[in-house]
Specification:
564 residues, alpha/beta, seven-stranded mixed beta sheet, three-stranded antiparallel beta sheet, 17 helices, 12 strands, PyrdxlP-dep_Trfase_major, lyase
Length: 564
């Protein structure tokens, strides 16, 4: 018997002439959704994806015949936006629109946006995503795996589990005990770390009755500002993180940390977490996490805190630094990739520093930064996944049945998690392997050394201010014509009498960055070249003045060279 609904359609899916209008519209819409069956003929979905890619490709500049600087660092022909003036006038259309038309409108929204793949664009840690990550992430959008449980994601769930195992192995943790969860960026990792720490330190009761104790979170002055987000949104309160001084390398001052920890310990004030930054954004400073571990074990021994209550958890913010772990096992003597001696020394320095992350209880890693994956793509790793699950699990839901052995939706913050995060990271790891990561990371340092020691050194009015750092960014200051940049910078750094000059030259750095930004937005050509898009930063270092109460910061211009 044919139902009254089935009678509206022909066998080929077309609609009967007598069908109501809703059925006709529904038939028209079907071509805008991927089919549930394989198509022997041309697939409308595949065609539309290809068409969308062609729309985007038209926004790119033509391939240059000489320097990349002869092409603009923005997409499309008009960088004057963004245009937000009429957004409140948007209304839902009465009729359906062709998908191709919608995709063309979507592509138009990218016009004027910085082209993160372009060598002229170096404003922040925003590298281009690799093709394996892009396409793999897109594949998840076709079938919508929800990685809160195996039933909803099936073997796509393996991408989270396998990626976590690979990272645990790089870290040096037991891969049978450690685990990871993909979440909403580095702030999400930090948030998970602080929540885990609070529950571990204050006990399960804090989850039911709320946080009623002013536990402390210790983090360096150079620690990421999301320390405010996490202490705020967990309900702990932003007044309860304590900033630890930094040393001349911008790493956490261990003597100050030890003093604060011992004082809080003696007073009986709980420390929920000590956050170690494993690679700051500007200086790539790495906190002494091994010493932090020794201090925690001394004052809060496991035999007296077997359940973790009252014991600080060590969270490592390694969102930028984690990828140096891929030099695990590299033969630094033979140097098979042929890095320059000074670059090789920096690589070894970075690996030795980051490898100490093994001492952490939880770690945040961003694949969308130094993993060259799609935005966003971050994983929080925990040394003891079973304990993490026990502390954060909730009663089951009417919609979640434990039909597989892996059901993170029972203890994650999110009750929906796209498989695109983990798929992008997994595809990146499969594609790049050890040698891919090593060649990109080492190649970045090769470029940094060239920029710092050959290009900038030839410019008397420019000085590199982080020459000895081994991170991803070159920081520099520019001065007016006739000024010896290096001498002036050292004067501003050490002589309080130069404070007024420092402040004036800080304004100069802002003005230079703003002018370059304006030229970028105007598409201005200077001697046949487009202006680079850079920003400015104030987080690199304070002055070395004797009076510690007078610590103005330096404004610097950054050059992030992250394209492969």
């Amino acid at each position: 018997m044919v139902s009254k609904f089935a009678a509206n359609w022909n066998n080929d899916g077309s609609v009967q002439a007598s069908a109501p209008r809703w059925a006709a519209l529904r038939a028209d819409m079907q071509s805008a959704f991927p089919t549930y069956y394989s198509t022997d003929t041309s697939d409308p979905f595949a065609y539309l994806v290809g068409e969308a890619i062609r729309y985007l490709d038209r926004l790119k500049p033509p391939k240059p015949t000489s320097s990349p600087a002869t092409t603009p660092g923005y997409l499309g022909g008009d960088p004057s936006g963004p245009h937000y003036g009429d957004v409140t006038k948007a209304r839902l259309g009465e009729n359906m629109a062709p998908v191709s038309e919608v995709l063309q409108q979507a592509a138009d929204l990218f016009k004027g946006m910085p082209n993160w793949n372009h060598p002229l664009v170096m404003a922040n840690v925003i590298p281009p995503a690799n093709t394996a990550a892009i396409v793999a992430a897109m594949m998840t959008q076709v079938f919508s795996p929800n990685i809160i449980e195996g039933e909803y994601a099936w073997d796509v769930e393996r991408t989270e589990m396998e990626t976590s195992a690979i990272l645990a192995d790089l870290i040096g943790w037991d891969t049978n005990e450690a685990g990871g969860l993909f979440t909403f960026g580095g702030s999400g990792c930090y948030f998970y770390g602080i929540k885990y720490a609070l529950t571990s330190c204050l006990g399960m009761d804090s989850r039911c009755n709320g946080i009623r104790t002013d536990a402390k979170v210790l983090v360096s002055q150079q620690g990421h500002y999301c320390k405010m987000n996490s202490t705020d949104w967990t309900g702990l309160g932003m007044e309860n993180f304590i900033e630890i001084d930094t040393d001349e390398t911008n790493a956490m001052d261990f003597e100050h940390l030890e003093s604060v920890v011992r004082e809080l310990h003696a007073a009986g004030t709980p420390i929920a977490a000590i956050v170690c930054t494993m690679g700051t954004t500007d200086a790539f400073a790495v906190d002494p996490i091994d010493k932090v571990r020794d201090l925690v074990d001394e004052l809060y021994p496991l035999d007296k805190h077997s359940d973790g209550v009252g014991r600080p958890l060590i969270y490592a913010d390694a969102v930028i630094g984690w990828s140096w772990l891929t030099f695990k096992g590299y033969d630094f003597q033979a140097n098979p990739l042929g890095f320059a001696p000074k670059v090789l020394a920096d690589i070894l320095k970075n690996y030795n520093a980051i490898s100490k992350v093994v001492h952490a209880d939880a770690i945040g890693c961003d694949f969308h930064k130094t993993g060259w994956s799609t935005y966003n793509c971050s994983v929080v790793m925990v040394r003891d996944l079973h304990r993490f699950q026990e502390l954060l699990s909730r009663p089951g839901s009417a919609y979640l049945q434990a039909r597989t052995c892996y059901n993170p939706g029972l203890y994650t913050l999110e009750v929906s998690r796209s498989g695109s995060y983990s798929m992008a990271a997994w595809a990146t790891l499969k594609f790049m392997g050890y040698e891919g990561f090593r060649s990109i990371l080492g190649g970045i340092l090769e470029l940094q050394h060239y920029l710092r020691h050959e290009v900038i050194k030839q410019e008397p009015t420019v000085v590199c201010v982080n020459e000895e750092d081994s991170g991803f960014v070159t920081l520099f200051r520019v001065y007016k014509k006739g000024v010896d940049a290096e001498a002036q910078y050292n004067r501003e750094l050490t002589n309080p009498a130069a404070l007024t000059e420092l402040e004036a030259n800080n304004e100069l750095q802002k003005n230079v960055a703003d002018l370059l930004w304006q030229w970028h937005r105007e598409g201005k050509l200077l001697e046949g070249s487009y202006a680079p898009y850079i920003s400015y930063t104030s987080g690199f270092r304070p002055t070395d003045y004797p009076d510690e109460n007078v610590e103005p910061e330096f404004i610097c211009l950054p050059s992030w060279r992250l394209p492969p």
